Amino acid sequence: MPGRLTVHRPTPTTASFTVSNAPRRSNPTAKVLFAFGILLRVLSFICVIAVAITRARHHFFEEGSFSTIAWEDVWSSAAGRYACQLVDSYNPSVLAIAGTLILYGVFRRGHTEESLLVIRGFGIQTSTSSSTYLSTAATRFIPTTQIQDIVIHEAFKGFEVRFYLAVIVEGEPGVLVVFPQLLPGREVLEEVWRGSRRCLYDTKS
Amino acid sequence: MPYNIAMVSDFFFPQSGGIESHIYQLSSKLIDRGHKVIIITHAYKGRTGVRYLTNGLKIYHVPFFVIYRETTFPTVFSFFPIFRNIVIREQIEIVHGHASLSSFCGEAILHARTMGLRTVFTDHSLFGFADAASILTNKLLKFTLSDVDHAICVSHTCKENTVLRASLDPLMVSVIPNAVVAENFRPLSNDSRAADQGAMSPVDQRPQPAPIGPDDTITIVVISRLFYNKGTDLLIAAIPRILALNPNTRFIIAGSGPKAIDLEQMLERNVLQDKVEMLGSVRHEEVRDVMVRGHIYLHPSLTEAFGTVIVEAASCGLYVVCTRVGGIPEVLPQHMTTFAKPEEDDLVVATSKAIAALRSNKVRTDRFHDQVKMMYSWRDVAERTERVYKGITGDISPEEFYGSYPGQGWEVSGDRVRSFALIDRLKRYYGCGVWAGKLFCFCVVIDFLIYVFLEMWFPRANIDIARSWPRKPPADKSHSSNGGRRDQ
Questions:
Q1: Is pLDDT of B197 > 70?
Q2: Transmembrane segments in this chain: where (chain A) (predicted)?
Q3: Is residue A180 located within the same domain as residue A103?
Q4: Could you report the per-residue pLDDT of B263-315, keeping only the tens digit for each?
């Protein structure tokens, strides 16, 4: 899915360009589906935790530990007994693998978001969102004194020739590619290039 | 009408040579005439990706596997996806391949025809017919050229050779020779600033160079790669005899190659080190400085499609002694050259004759530069190539392009204007041979299927169109009409 560009320009000397391939969610159906998706993730997370607790009940969740909950009552109730029976009937390694997969699905970010933040007299910061919700985005800051230029160039990638926006950093052998994962099209890149150069170098605004 | 042209060849800078500089000079002159030209070649060491040269000439160094002497591995289909991407993003209309040994060129022509583009092929070399390698090369050439829209050869000998090898219709092959940048090959007498004035002042006012006396030293220059096909063995045999027959002669030999050792052994055996100077390999921009040190240029090559170097030598004001092989006799007029048969005795006789002619001051070598400048220019080559482009795209009618011969029993048939229909293409490939024809048809069908698959998998709409370098205004019409008539 091609990336969409959003530009924030709070002051003339600051600009933030964000490219994201997240779906747009403008109509009610999409919003309902999105809410349903969140609900599904929460439910699956609770399920995995519950299965894990049931599995480990003999080691941690017995009388004495976590005494705020009466574990004896939980395990002896009808639902508790059914859960114990169900969990014990499966191989523990199967449960572990399935649980890991479901947890990965729960925390996986379905889209990529990459951004470029430009502040005049200060520098630029690029960031690429991580693949899960658990870790933070990978960012890189380059002070103005180290920026030699910002350019658009072409390169071979797979079976294609793609445009990319690159920052030439002083004292580094390679260039820093902005939006390295999404690699948006030429028109988006040209807009970002113009905007960031205006923000960095244009003295009129 | 300006075209978007892609030049495809395995051979391009940073490697240097005749084909490379041909592509570069032709491309930059076509850009001057208002066309858009890109070059597709494979990646060289330290040179990959997309690059620009002066004049906005864009070069795609496609990362590819190189097997032998900078030729890529012939994989027939693997080049297609990236080639299609480049062609679409640059909006190419004409694909122009160079050099028959380049697998890139052959593949590009096949894919371009599948994509419905016009193709031109330029052949730069001569090949034999007899040995196994030639037979294989000729079959490959036949495969490449069965479906090409037009072919260009650098000399009439080369045209004859190509027509026979690829069983082409001779009217579909044009002859457009190479050229030289005459400004880079000035004789010593009108160096640097003098040359600029010399262009304006009449020729006769220039002081005549000092005549060569009977006892002055005459220097013979040889610049060639020292390979068997360049006639180095002939040279090794001839040098001692030439020096024995003609006192006060010296040799300067520039170039390197596998035969350099034989040459050095000959020098030591005959103790000729003080009369023969070996320079090793020289870069192309230094060639002129070596040439102007001599009076005679000796070119003992055994096979040559065109021989740009002898034009360069004549442009430097050297009298040329060369073997009568390949396209060489077409290159220079009689008064600049002495021809020899490609054998030892005749080469010695011809060189001695040339030395005698120089000593008797019969040859006006000082006029060679201006004459060569009149004969060869890249602008002329570009104009004639442009006419080929016009012919194949239908901007000039087939009758005008191929010539009209009413009442000769044959007509300018529709087959010369090649249709893109798959069945017509298959018919042309099927005639290539009993087994080869079927194999080629198979390849073409696969290629077509790959094309359909690529159109589905990587739709055109998703490919960014690259911005073009600002075009120059197209050249005026008067040049193109008088320059293009000679290429049949």
A1: no
A2: 32-53
A3: no
A4: 999 999 999 889 999 998 888 888 889 999 999 999 998 888 888 888 999 99
Q: Is the peptide bond before B14 cis (omega within 30 degrees of 0)?
A: yes
Any idea what the CATH number is for the domain that residue A135 is in? 2.30.29
How confident is the model at residue B445, as a pLDDT?
Answer: 93
Domain span including residue A12? 4-22+111-201
- Is B285 in CB contact (< 8 Å) with chain A? no
3-state secondary structure at position B51: strand
CB distance A161–B81 less than 8 Å?
A: no
CATH code assigned at B426: 3.40.50.2000
Q: Do B49 and A185 touch (CB under 8 A)?
A: no
Q: Best interface-test mutation with A: which of B85, B464, B465 has the largest number of A CBs within 10 A?
A: B464
CA distance A46 to A38: 12
For A5, counting Cβ atoms within 10 Å of its Cβ (0-12 exposed, 13-18 middle, 19+ buried), the class is middle
Evaluate the CA torsion angle B11, B16, B17, B23 in order and state its sign. positive
Q: What interface predicted TM-score (ipTM) does this complex get?
A: 0.78
What pLDDT score does B4 carry?
Answer: 93
Query: CB under 8 Å to B356, separation ≥6 — which residues?
Result: none
Average pLDDT, chain A: 85
